[in-house]
Design a protein that fits this description.
The complex is a heterodimer. By secondary structure, chain A is mainly beta. Chain A is built from no helices and eleven strands. In chain B, a hairpin with an 8-residue loop joins strand 9 and strand 10. Chains A and B meet through strand 4, strand 5, strand 9 and strand 10 of A and strand 5 and strand 10 of B.
Chain lengths: 114, 113
């Protein structure tokens, strides 16, 4: 079993829809949670960063962490065609040091149709 | 401020050839790492470094070597290329480690024939 599981999609939605992207994980030591966005043929870029449980909002994006269920989500409101990309979740048990590697999900491909 | 710079962007190798993928960062980050990205496999860690002179293996190190002589540079060497090494390679850096989040380069698309 992978430490981090993510539905690969693809997920296709109409412009303006609310998008929900999710990851589950098995390692209860994870406490730093991130979402990366990766456009086609580009490197991943950090989109959202959350420490421990709770919600974080940044414009149209909301990240949620439920540590009791080992489940994280990314919501995109009023989705735009420019949001079409692969979204990768990532998590780490610690802030720094050699043992605190960042573990990635496989990514969900999102297509927002105009 | 260039961030993380990877060269080359594209490369085709013949089986058995060797080459070095270059990675440089100008953010004075201590932590650097190499990932490969394959369809359905996500990002897999090849090697990482927590500072100049210190490197260690990640999840898929076989067939790859690294060294870290300066804070800025972290080259990845393929000793004898194999078709299984056809992939997209990303270099990433961080101020200290996983919990900080990484800055990624734009990738090197490698094909081994």
């Amino acid at each position: 079993q992978k430490e981090v599981e993510q539905d690969p999609g693809p997920l296709s939605v109409p412009e303006g829809a609310i998008v929900s992207l999710n990851c589950t994980y098995s390692n209860s030591a994870f406490q730093y949670f991130m979402w990366y966005r990766q456009y086609s043929r580009k490197g991943p870029e950090l989109l959202m960063y959350t420490y421990s449980s709770g919600n974080k909002e940044d414009g149209r994006f909301t990240a949620q962490v439920d540590k009791s269920s080992k489940y994280i989500s990314l919501f995109i409101r009023d989705s735009q065609p420019s949001d079409s990309a692969t979204y990768l979740c990532a998590m780490s048990a610690g802030y720094g040091g050699a043992t605190n590697k960042l573990i990635f999900g496989t990514g969900t491909l999102l297509a927002v149709q105009p | 401020n260039a961030g993380v710079t990877q060269t080359p962007k594209f490369q085709v190798l013949k089986t058995g050839q060797s080459m070095t993928l270059q990675c440089a960062q100008d953010m004075n980050h201590e932590y650097m790492s190499w990932y490969r990205q394959d369809p359905g496999m996500g990002l897999r860690l090849i090697h990482y470094s927590v500072g100049a002179g210190i490197t260690d293996q990640g999840e898929v190190p076989n067939g790859y070597n690294v060294s870290r002589s300066t804070t800025e540079d972290f080259p990845l060497r393929l000793l004898s290329a194999a078709p299984s090494q056809t992939s997209v390679y990303f270099c990433a850096s961080s101020p200290e480690g996983g919990g900080y989040g990484y800055t990624f380069g734009s990738g090197t698309r490698l094909t081994v024939v």
